[in-house]
Amino acid sequence: MSKDDPSWLDRAIFPFTSRFVNVDGNRVHYIDEGTRPTLLLLHGSRTAQPG
User: Fold this and answer.
1) Which of 30, 36, 33, 6 lies closest to 18, judged by CA?
2) Contacts of 18 (CB under 8 A, 6+ apart)
3) What's the number of domains the chain is made of?
4) What is the DSSP string of 1-51?
């Protein structure tokens, strides 16, 4: 288990490598697995929504 792993993550069940990139001062976690086309999923926060 890495220092960045959440306590609920069992690496025996989910054996991916965590990677991180800084985007505009924000640390973004991503997983680079497989050979198929890239799928990018991003979510915002309630404070980022207008109105």
Assistant:
1) 30
2) 2, 4, 5, 29, 31
3) 1
4) --TTS-TT--TTT--PPEEEEEETTEEEEEE--SSSPP-------GGGS--
C-alpha distances in Å from residue 34, one per residue of 17, 47, 48: 12, 34, 32
Q: How far apart are the C-alpha atoms of 23 and 17, rounded to whole Å?
A: 19
pLDDT band of residue 9 (cuts 50, 70, 90) is confident
Q: What is the pTM of this model?
A: 0.57
For residue 47, being part of any structural domain is answered with no
Residue span of the structural domain in which 13 resides: 1-42
